[in-house]
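== Folding the chain ==

***
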Amino acid sequence: MIALRGIDKRYGTQIALHDVSLEVRPGAVTALVGPNGSGKTTLIKTILGLTRPDAGTVALAGVPIDREGEYRRHLGYMPQAGHFPEHLAVGEVIQLVDALRRGIAVDDDLLHAYDLGAIWEKKVSALSGGTRQKLSAAIAFRYAPQVLILDEPTAGLDPLACGILKDKIRRVRQAGCTVVITSHIMSELEELADDIAFLCDAQLQFSGPVVALLERTKQPRLEGAVAALLRARSGSRPDAPPRYDVENIPTLERP
């Protein structure tokens, strides 16, 4: 569904991505992981068309992405922290996005599951962090996208809301939606992801099924497998502790 070929990106003298080629399988959930500064944010921005690579190509369903951004009609994006106009009410935010995405059938599942109708008139400025996250999720899934990019989607959600969101991710995957997800919770990725893409030092170090990574690293859990990749990359002894704190390995840095 998403194909990146030879992506290079620099910011001044800093190399953000170097020769990154990645195939994101259609209808699969792909976890994007790596330490801070590994290039994950730049990769996501490249897919979204928010940054242009210095070299390489990006294609969606075999069609190169265009500068006009028409392909974005097929994308859903849930940032780590959604930012909405503070003076607008919840209903006004949804109506505003509906107007921008006119002509697309809407999916109200999360709107109802999170009971956002009960706070339709409530101003964004009065919402808690968790409720803002629910609103962001409802908007990301609302337009039945072919591709969903979810950046730390369960951050700030209570266990019930988290379970609702994960169930929704599974349902859209079963319906054929392609999902790219980042999370600092390894058990969450293990629960949801079919494939994994591991970035480190601006390069793609591994991409493939989660089960293949577990077999390659001889680890029973994803957390240990990612730590093993980091040890291998840093040249540490197999019995040495990882250079990075395992709990923070896949945290997605803010732009």
Summary: The beta strands are 2-11, 14-24, 29-33, 55-60, 63-64, 75-78, 147-151, 178-182, 195-200, 203-209. The first helix runs from residue 40 to 48. The helical segments are 40-48, 90-100, 109-113, 129-142, 159-174, 186-192, 210-217, 222-234. The longest strand covers residues 14-24.
